[in-house]
Every structure is written in C-alpha cells, then in structure tokens.
Amino acid sequence: MEEEFSAALAFLNGLQQYDNFEASEYGAGYHFLHESGEWADHFQFLETLDDDESAVQEAPNASKKQVKKRTKKKGFNPNKAREDLRAEVIMLKNEVEELEFIRKRFQTIQSRRKTDNNAATSSHGMGEASLWKEICAHQIKRRLRTERENVVLRRNCEKEIRVVNSVKNLLKTRPALWHMTSPETRIRTRRIEIPNGYMNDMVARIFDELAAGVEASYCNVKQSKSRSGLADSASQTPLLTDGVKGRPREVFDCSILPFGVVEISDAWWEDWHTYSGRTVQDTADVVAESFGLEIYDVAANISATFYAQQVLRRYAEDNRVVFVWNAYIEPISFKGKRVRGAYYIENSNAIIKPQGRERNETLTQVSCQEVVTPHFLDAKLTNDPKISALTSVLMNSMSPYYTERTKTIETLLLDRAIQARRCNLK
Length: 426
Hints:
Residues 57-77 are annotated as: Disordered. The protein is of the alpha+beta class. It has helices at residues 2-27, 29-35, 42-58, 60-70, 80-172, 203-223, 261-271, 385-396, 398-425; strands spanning 187-192, 244-245, 249-257, 278-282, 286-297, 302-316, 321-334, 337-338, 342-354, 364-376.
C-alpha cells in the first residue's frame, strides 16, 4: 500500500513541475527580452516592430493566414485545460493526504491489535496447558476405574462360564426317552405288552404274597434304621417256596441330589407312572402292576423277555421316605427260545433321606438296594448254562436301570426348577 501511495505522489509532483516549467517559459518570455541588452531603448524596440510589419506586407498571403490563425473567439480561455489539470492535481493531493492519514491510522490500529493478540496468546497458552493437564488427569482416573471394573467383570464372567458349562454337561446327560437307557449302555431294558395268550392262574396268589413280602421288607427296613447301611431284605422267609432256591444276587446304588426329600419322593413316585405296557391297580400309596419286560444285550446281541408282577408301596416317615417293592419275574424266552422251569423273586427298597442331620438340608441321599433270588422247579436247572446266562443278563440290567432312574428324576426336578425360575422372572 505504501508503494502505491509513493507512486501516486511522484506522478503528481512530475505534473506540477511540468506545469511550472510551461508557465515560466511563456509568461516570462517578454519580460526576459525586455530586460535583456538586445534593445537599449524603446526606439529600438519600435523599429523592430516596424521591421516585422514590413515583413508582413511583403508576404500578404502568409500574413492573412497568420491573422486568420491568430483570430480568437470571444470568451475562449487558452489556459482552461491547464487550469482544469491544476484543479484535478489539487484534488488528488487532498485525496492522497486523506489516504495517507487513513493508512497511518490503520497501521496504528494494526500494531495495537498485534500487541493485544500476543498478550492474549500468551495467557491463552498458559490456560490451555492447565486445561490439558486436567483432562489428562481425568482420563487417567477414568481408565484406572475402568480397568478395575473390567477385572471384576472378568472374574464374574469366568464364574458364570463355569456354571454354564456345568449346566451344559448336566443337560447333555439327559436321556432322549426317560424310560429308555442311554445308547452307550451295554444292557437295554424296557417294558413291553404282556404276550398274547399268556395266562397264569396264580396271578392273584402272587400279588397277595408280594404284598405280604412288601410289609415284611418294610419291617426289616425299620429295624435296620438304627444301624448303618441298608436293610437286609434277603433274610426274610421266601415268598414262593415251590422248587429249589438259588443263590441271591444283590445290587446297590447310592446318589446325592441337590433337592429336598419331598421333591425327590414325589418325582420318584411320578416316575413309576410313566411306563407303558402294564396293568395297574393304583391306590394312594400302593401300586400293584403286571407288565412285560424285554432286556437286550447290545454287545452279545442277546435278548430275553419276561413276565413280571410287582407291588410297590410308599412309606412317609418324619425325616425320610421309604419305597419298598417286591416283584415276581418269570422268563418267557431267551435267544428266541421258550424258557420253562425257573422264576425270580425281587426284593427291593429305596430310602430317601437328608444327607445332613438337619431336616431342611438341601442335599438328599437316595439309597437303593435290590436282591434277586432265582427259583427252580427242577433241581437239575440249577447248573443249567442257559438259566445261568439268563440270570446274568437279568442282573446286569439292574445297575444301569437304577442309574438311568436317578438321572431321570434329577432331570425332571431340574426342568421344574428352571420353569419356576422363569415364571418368577416374568
């Protein structure tokens, strides 16, 4: 901006010098001639004028042209352009002075603003540094708090994952059908319809003797309550005395379930009513039933069918529940062939009681005992390999049967607990 102002001033000064030069050349010309030494007096000056006049007469045409050229119009100002230019120069000078004043004012204001900005920048820099320190300190505190929360959440998540895995493992053990054993079991047992045409005129007598045997077994269980261990059901008098009594076979099972005594006993009682292929005479706490039984040995590819009559009774005591059942089992076929001359008497009981001394203990112990005694109508059948193999198949099916029954009851109670929890959450 300063360079533009300087160029304008130089241009105006040049115009003024030219104007002064023109004015001095034409205005002082005659004064210079008058004062010079060429004309000593006025007469010489007049003579000179005469000479000029004679020269004009010698060339009339030229003088006429010069007169015509020198003729001027009235009111004509030969210096008008010069005066206009001079007025414009004066106006421009005034504008230049005003612009110069404005420029100086702008420079003053600009210098003041720079000073103020420098001071503000220095103060703002100090304030910004302190602000960044506060922000960093706040972020550090926040990160530390977040890390502590993450540690706690990670621990809780690990605990929850362990619980979920435990529940998954528990659910994987659920059988597809409750009345069937798992596919991995070597012996499979299931109830079937009683074979057509199978008639036994001793059915009523067998039921009566089985009911009497149940009462005797329960008395034996009550007597063994004060002693440790299970009751000795095999010590009672044989129910059916026909034939020769063989060697008794025993099966024991004991498990701990995380449910109450009443819940487990109700589930046990309900499980007895889930079988098909039976004829039931059910009262409040007594079940008398007859059914067909099929046992299949997967490894040996051996199957056997039986006819069974069974009497079950439930006894509810102060701090425990006792199930006692006796059964009459008569083989029908083995390896596809008819079997005659042998039967089995089963004496069993299940005792459900708290694991601890207190009644309201959450853990409950389920103890089962089963004694199977073979009976032979002919003494020669005692050492018969076919009957021995049939007895082994029957006894080998007992242990998986109790294991699957316990899993079934545990699964049933678990499903009910989950359903109750979902209802409470709603």
